[in-house]
Description:
By secondary structure, the protein is α+β, with helices and mostly antiparallel strands.
Amino acid sequence: MPVSVNPKDSKLKITFSTGVDGNGKDIKSSKTYTSIKPAATDEDIFAVASTLIGLQKNTALNVERLDQKEIVEA
């Protein structure tokens, strides 16, 4: 059965280290920014993430782009 894929919005997720627990492991928290246009380049999204990270007091651990796609029967 053939299918068609329709791009939907993307999301930007930044994970931060907010401290260390009693065992020496990072305590993590994340912030997700929604409604990123699918046409946005990875470089543009990373530039925005870098700016947002610069406004935070916590250390960023990673940056992720989460793309959503709708799969429908063609």
